[in-house]
Design a protein that fits this description.
heterodimer; A: 378 residues; alpha+beta; Butyryl-Coa Dehydrogenase, subunit A, domain 1; Butyryl-CoA Dehydrogenase, subunit A, domain 2; Butyryl-CoA Dehydrogenase, subunit A, domain 3; 3 domains; 4-stranded mixed sheet; 11 helices; B: 394 residues; 15% strand; binds flavin-adenine dinucleotide
Chain lengths: 378, 394
């Protein structure tokens, strides 16, 4: 057993940290909050040059063929730097369904382009019911000749407005269970009948309402099998959940680092505020939350990667814990900063607002606690 | 012990309610979060203050000669409760009525009272609080802004920070150091500063909600006549403590919270998720019940302060308990609201999908500031532990 990073992971981490400090400073994060697209094409290209878009794509399709644990290492750095843009959307939500269930044609056509940073993707799953489960999928896809026609609304879809292709989860029939009758489509985001509206959110990330009105999709664009698409979504969700945890771990760590530093430097009553036991105990609580989050996230990633029997349990434990723990971390971070923490100009608020977003993505603590309870067979 | 209000007090509550029904701005929902950037909202505040003034209700518990009605502490409490519950637009007068005015009543000369109190109750002046400095926040007594006596004047130089509403205010309660040789608590004086005095510069600070609510203030050879001094020279610290006690004992928090719980309950009843009402979910029910009872505790802790005042006692660490509990509680309440709303909770008011007009999302950010403003939780706990419980300092 070894809970530390191996040499390759260590290298990736250090490289990513240096790279992002240089290429994705706070100013870029702030700019992208105001920016309609929400990502910098320049940074996107540079990240692609590092092979990051293809990190988990097999080498035969132009990727670097690494694994989920490496992705977690990288995403921790993304959370630390608050990297804006459609990275998780493309690399996990877009690429994973194709890697998992796409046919050779689809793989050949898309994976190299994703790896090269030429194609931006996302997955449209949730609807106004805001459910992560199969029974939330109501968007209708009807067969018409060689096409399917899609009608309905997807909500909270990350980065859809800048995507080239979307993986759309639709209902093709009403089966015996909610999982039956779901089909996954590859949809050109510029297809006639699709409209996007950006949602204004606490994190100023870019989630969209995506409306489908008689959108024609060729039958050849089905990913996997008709009516049997839910397991593809499940797999993607698991990866995305781990990705969200990793991002939160990095975010929490950075919030903590900034706060710890501040506590050492800020002087009141003639001494650093970090010398007050009240602040010391707070920071001790914070580091417990950060470390706990990190290792349960590593465990979840490893379990999924190694196909361990308790992987699902670990993933839900990780997201339930990390969602709550990171919120405690950033709340302490605000408070230890006093008045300056409440200003727009100082960076700590960026972490506070983004935490809420990732807390919610792919299921909040309530949702995953319920899954933990189910797996305990309570 | 008696929790019941007297018939007169009940009647007064009803009177306030009826009046609010008539006089609140049309369709007023209490969403005050764009206020300071948006002149239209600001006008609503000013206008409402004018209506209160006509009724002598800007500061109803103040003595009649200063434009109040001499109401009892309990009546004032009822009044505050109703205002908070209806989320009345009080932004204009809060600092004058809550903090500056009461301190002037206790320490001001007759001339100062005549000059300022009537103007506050007539809704003619707005006040701000120039206490905090970049290096003097929790450790307020280490403030460095200097006031030097020069003939019949004082000349003020220095900087303040986090001054809420300074950009809209006419007057400022200002702490400045008059004796740099004395120990830090003993060289501070308390001034009533006209914000239009030459040499005063206000620069906006934008907060994390993207609002302009607080400011930096700079003083460059600001010359004020000596009758701007409140109380005795070098006794400012003790008067400031009085101001802060007034600030901390405010009831608003708990009662505003009650309204928010009601709104959440209504939301949970109306909102269906997957064929089921949110109010049927156990996690939602537990959160609502917790929120409701925390609001009630907060209310009791505030009532206790009022009740002491009614008996002629001076609240001490009790105000800190109320401040600490109520601001933390309001944050937890906002957090619980967002949790109940799930993915929708993250939406800002501008979103057409935002539940309850995005109010909880705004509150979730705003309350992080309220926890800090008026003294941080650590400072309140220190007061409770040392001033209240008499625990040793060393
Ligand atoms: C929204 C808002 C509005 C405000 N409005 C006004 C206003 O109108 N007028 C005005 O004068 N001020 C105002 N303030 C300032 C406010 O009073 C100060 O921010 C507050 O007192 C804390 O001071 P600080 O920001 O310097 O933080 P610091 O004092 O630097 O505190 C930083 C951290 O150190 C902790 N700490 C400090 N001392 C101790 C100790 N002895 N033991 C344990 N922990 C300690 C604090 O609890 C905090 O967590 C406002 C602040 C906010 C956020």
């Amino acid at each position: 057993m070894d809970l530390g990073l191996d040499e390759q992971q260590e290298l990736l981490k250090n490289f990513a940290r240096d790279f992002l400090e240089k290429e994705c400073p706070e100013s870029v994060v702030r700019e992208m909050e105001e920016d309609e697209k929400g990502y910098s094409p320049d940074l996107w290209r540079k990240m692609a040059q590092q092979g990051w878009m293809g990190l988990i794509i097999p080498e035969e399709h132009g990727g670097t063929g690494m694994n989920l644990c490496e992705l977690v290492v990288l995403l921790e750095e993304f959370g630390r730097a608050l990297v804006p843009g459609p990275y998780i959307s493309t690399v996990v939500l877009g690429a994973v369904p194709i890697m998992e269930a796409g046919n050779d044609e689809q793989k050949k056509q898309l994976l190299p382009k994703i790896a090269a940073g030429e194609t931006i993707m996302t997955m449209a799953l949730t609807e106004p019911s805001a459910k992560w489960d199969a029974d939330g999928v109501e968007l209708e896809a009807k067969k018409q000749g060689n096409d399917y026609v899609l009608n309905g609304v997807k909500l909270f879809v990350p980065d859809a407005h800048v995507s080239d292709q979307m993986v759309v989860v639709a209902r093709t029939s009403k089966g015996k269970t909610p999982e039956d009758g779901i089909t996954v489509f590859l949809v050109d985001s510029k297809s006639p009948g699709i409209s996007f509206e950006l949602l204004r959110t606490i994190a100023a990330d870019k989630q969209c309402e995506v409306a489908f009105e008689n959108v024609k999709v060729p039958a050849a664009n089905v990913i996997g099998e008709v009516d049997k698409g839910w397991p593809i979504v499940e797999k993607t969700k698991k990866m995305a959940t781990v990705a969200a945890c990793a991002y939160l771990v990095g975010l929490s760590q950075m919030d903590f680092d900034v706060t710890l530093n501040y506590a050492k430097e800020r002087v009141q009553f003639g001494r650093p505020i970090g010398s007050f036991q009240a602040i010391q105990h707070k920071l001790a609580d914070v580091v417990i939350d950060v470390d706990g989050s990190r290792f349960i996230t590593y465990k979840a990633a490893w379990s999924l990667q190694e196909e361990e029997p308790d992987a699902d349990m670990m993933i839900s434990m990780a997201k339930a814990w990390t969602s709550d723990a990171s919120r405690r971390v950033v709340a302490h971070g605000q408070q230890i900063h006093g008045g300056i923490g409440f200003t727009k100009e100082y960076k700590i608020q960026l972490y506070f607002r983004r935490q809420k977003w990732m807390e919610l993505m792919w299921g909040d603590a309530d949702y995953h606690r319920e899954l933990v309870a189910q797996k305990l067979e309570v | 012990m008696d929790f019941r209000l007297s018939p007169e007090e009940e009647a007064f509550r009803q009177e306030v309610r009826d009046w609010l029904k008539e006089n609140l701005p049309k369709d007023w929902s209490g969403d005050r979060f764009t206020r300071d950037r948006d002149p239209e909202t600001w006008n609503i505040y000013r206008e409402f203050a004018g209506k209160l003034a006509a009724k002598k209700w800007v500061a109803p518990a103040w003595p009649v000669e200063y434009g109040g009605l001499g109401l009892s502490v309990i009546q004032q409490l009822i009044f505050n409760e109703e205002m908070a519950y209806h989320q009345a637009p009080l932004g204009y007068s809060i600092m004058g009525v809550g903090w500056a005015g009461p301190t002037i009543i206790v320490y001001g000369t007759e001339e100062q009272k005549q000059k300022h109190l009537g103007a506050i109750t007539n809704a003619e002046t707005m006040w701000c609080q120039g206490f905090s400095e970049p290096n003097a926040g929790s450790d307020l007594a280490s403030l460095q802004t200097r006031a030097v006596r020069d003939g019949d004047d004082y000349v003020i130089n220095g900087q303040k920070i986090w001054t809420s509403g300074a950009h809209l205010s006419d007057w400022c309660i200002l702490l400045a150091r008059t004796d740099p040789e004395a120990t830090k608590h003993k060289g501070i004086s308390y001034f009533l500063l006209d914000m239009k005095t030459p040499g005063v510069t206000v620069r906006p600070l934008i907060d994390m909600m993207d609002n302009h609510a607080f400011n930096e203030m700079f003083f460059d050879n600001v010359r004020v006549p000596k009758d701007c001094l409140l109380g005795d020279e070098n006794r400012g610290w003790y008067m400031a403590a009085t101001t802060l006690d007034f600030e901390r004992s405010s009831i608003g928090g708990a009662v505003g919270g009650r309204r928010m719980v009601e709104e959440l309950v209504a939301y949970a009843r109306e909102t269906k998720r997957n064929g089921k009402r949110l109010s049927e979910e156990v996690t939602v029910r537990v959160r609502l019940a917790d929120a409701a009872l925390e609001v009630e505790i907060g209310r009791m802790l505030s009532y206790r302060v009022a009740s002491m005042q009614q008996r002629g006692l001076v609240p001490n660490y009790e105000s800190s308990i109320a401040k600490l509990f109520n601001t933390d509680m309001q944050f937890r309440l906002a957090k619980a609201g967002l949790e109940i709303m799930g993915l929708y909770g993250q939406l800002e008011p501008q979103s057409k999908y935002a539940p309850l007009r995005g109010k909880f999302e705004r509150q979730y950010l705003w309350q992080t500031g309220m926890i800090v403003g008026g003294g941080t939780p650590e400072i309140q706990r220190n007061i409770i532990a040392m001033r209240g419980l008499g625990l040793p300092r060393q």
